Fold this sequence. Notes:
This protein is an alpha/beta fold. It is built from seven helices and twelve strands. The protein has helices at residues 10-19, 52-62, 77-90, 116-122, 178-187, 205-213, 235-246, and strands at residues 2-6, 26-31, 44-47, 67-70, 94-97, 109-113, 129-132, 150-155, 167-171, 192-196, 216-220, 231-232. The strands form two sheets. The chain has a six-stranded parallel β-sheet with strand order 3-2-1-4-5-12, sandwiched between helices. α1 (10-19) crosses α7, α2 packs across α3 and α5 (178-187) crosses α6. It is elongated and about 60 Å long.
Amino acid sequence: xxxxxxxxxxxxxxxxxxxxxxxxxxxxxxxxxxxxxxxxxxxxxxxxxxxxxxxxxxxxxxxxxxxxxxxxxxxxxxxxxxxxxxxxxxxxxxxxxxxxxxxxxxxxxxxxxxxxxxxxxxxxxxxxxxxxxxxxxxxxxxxxxxxxxxxxxxxxxxxxxxxxxxxxxxxxxxxxxxxxxxxxxxxxxxxxxxxxxxxxxxxxxxxxxxxxxxxxxxxxxxxxxxxxxxxxxxxxxxxxxxxxxxxxxxxxx
Length: 253
């Protein structure tokens, strides 16, 4: 049996680790290739796009995929819709593995918005030293803001212009610690944080550090996802679903 994981996330890598070595199971993880040196999961790995919905559907057929798992980043909305349409076209069952979003806690000063453009529009009234943790994509939304705003941009790989004129880049990869996030906010004199609602524990400490410091946080809501798709929230739950779905077709372990 062949399982294709659309990955690039911590959850996708963990799912591959849990499934690797299962008797009778062929495992392939697909990475988009946006990170220069990704952490590779065990098993077969392919890097790069499929060429849209039709390309992915063709790949599913040609490689005899029995189940497709969408474990992409919560903000990879386009890929999730491609996966849903391709799975339906190729008549392949689809499971979505999506980490839960963050929930505000007492003391949080969140400003929730629907896009990076809305996040940029909110900044002039919230602070002047911005910790921008939305990754290296989409920084053009902040490029035309007034020059009195200063940005600390954290990303795994160096961003490409356009981005704000007054920008310092911090190259780093999670998981991040609470002490480390406290130090970043203090050392760079941050007075407002911008983040996407990525969820998960790896990057959540910045929210705690901002709450402790009384800082406002602009949170970009997640994009819509396809409806009618089975969804689990942890790699362990995904394994349970997959083995139940494929169990009758796998040889005894």
